[in-house]
Structure formats: structure tokens, C-alpha cells
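Notes to self after the Tuesday call (sharing in case useful).
The group wants a holo model before anyone commits to mutagenesis around the pocket. I volunteered. Ligand is FE2/S2 (inorganic) cluster. Logging inputs and output together so the record is complete.
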Amino acid sequence: MNSVSVNKTPTITLDGNNIECAQGKSVLENIESAGVEMAYNCREGFCGVCRTKLVSGQVEYTLDPLAFIDDDEILSCCTKPITDIEVKVIY
Ligand code: FES
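Result:
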């Protein structure tokens, strides 16, 4: 029988450190809660300052982003992890 963890909250891996995600918080907010300073400006998907490389895993957008990003990047201010993710800060 396979064990499935249904209610597990996703983990963000950043620079080898694991950050347990709080429900309802963005990737940016979760990383900030762990005491890591991230670059940001608008926090609404416009400026692109919070661009972050998504190394693995999946996120969902909480609003329609307008900033330009590459295919392997996310806007950390307006995404939430839906699986465990690994990210790399660009700035
Ligand atoms: S802080 Fe501006 S797009 Fe994320």
C-alpha cells in the first residue's frame, strides 16, 4: 500500500535550506517569513523585480502577472507553491 500525504504543506528549497510553507502565503512571503531578504517592489505582478528561477516543482498564480519573465522563472510575489519547489534567487 502506498502512503500518500494529502495535507502536507509544500516546502520551498532555497540555497539548500527547506522552508515549510504557510497556507495562503505567496512564495515571496514564505521566503521572507524564513528571514531571507528578497528583492521586490510592487508585489502585484507588474514590475518583475521578484523574478525567481524555478528549478523544480510547480506553482500557481494568484493573479495575472504582467511582468516579462523567462520560461524557467516565476514571480514570487504572486505565486503559491502547489508542490514542493526549489527556487534560485536571481537578484
Ligand atoms: S514584486 Fe513586482 S512583480 Fe513581484
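Two things stood out.
The CA atoms of residues 8 and 87 lie 19 Å apart.
Residues 40-43, 45-50, 67, 75, 77 surround FE2/S2 (inorganic) cluster (CB under 6 Å).
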